[in-house]
Amino acid sequence: MTCAEVAGLLPTGSTHRLKTDDDFSLRYIAAARLMLDRVRTHIASRRDAWSWFDSFDCGDRIALALLRAHYEYPGEQETRWFLLETRQLAERLGISHSHLRNVLNGAEGCGFILQDRRNHQMGLTPQMLDDIREFHLAFWSWVAESADQADNLRRSTA
Question: Do 12 and 5 meet the contact criterion of CB atoms below 8 Å apart?
Fold first, then answer.
């Protein structure tokens, strides 16, 4: 919900309200069904980078680790190469190194990442960055919509 606030989709203080207003929290949980249905439908479609990564064990965390590495390195977004220590990442995520390499190689085949194996560097493609940005903005809008529905539930029962 904080991300929805930062994106300007919800008023400041909504996250605090969710944590402190028990009635709103219960209404939000009730209203979240549509959001969860949308997420499930979107993920099942496997039509974008986020859905593709999410289809693998730890895939969402692999994608987030790639995004973090991408944004930690300086340079132009479209040409930003970064070093990814795959053995350390696999250990940190609690997955095998071969599973991580298989996911990364598959992501390269789908056009989501670029790999320079000789220099042990990789980069994220504009397609991956756009897909993940679009998914998260849609997700945060669904979070905001659930908050609006929770408010409407209050008005309809008052």
Answer: yes
Alpha helices in 46-125 (DSSP H): 49-54, 59-72, 86-93, 97-110
123 sits in which H/E element? strand 121-124
pTM over 0.90: no
Domain ranges (residues) in the chain: 49-140
Q: In CATH terms, is domain 49-140 a member of 3.40.366.10? A: no
Q: Which of 35, 12, 21, 36 is nearest to 151 (CA)?
A: 21
Tell me: the pLDDT tens digits for 115-124?
998 888 999 9
CA-to-CA separations, 110 to 45, 96, 120, in angstroms, rounded: 15, 21, 19
Predicted confidence (pLDDT) per residue in 23-55, tens digit: 999 999 999 998 999 999 988 887 899 999 999
Burial class, 143, CB count within 10 angstroms (exposed 0-12 / middle 13-18 / buried 19+) = buried
Single out the residue of 63, 93, 72, 83 nearest to residue 123, CA to CA.
83
Helix, strand, or coil (residue 7):
coil
d(CA 18, CA 40): 23
Q: CB burial class (10 A; 0-12, 13-18, 19+) of residue 140?
A: buried
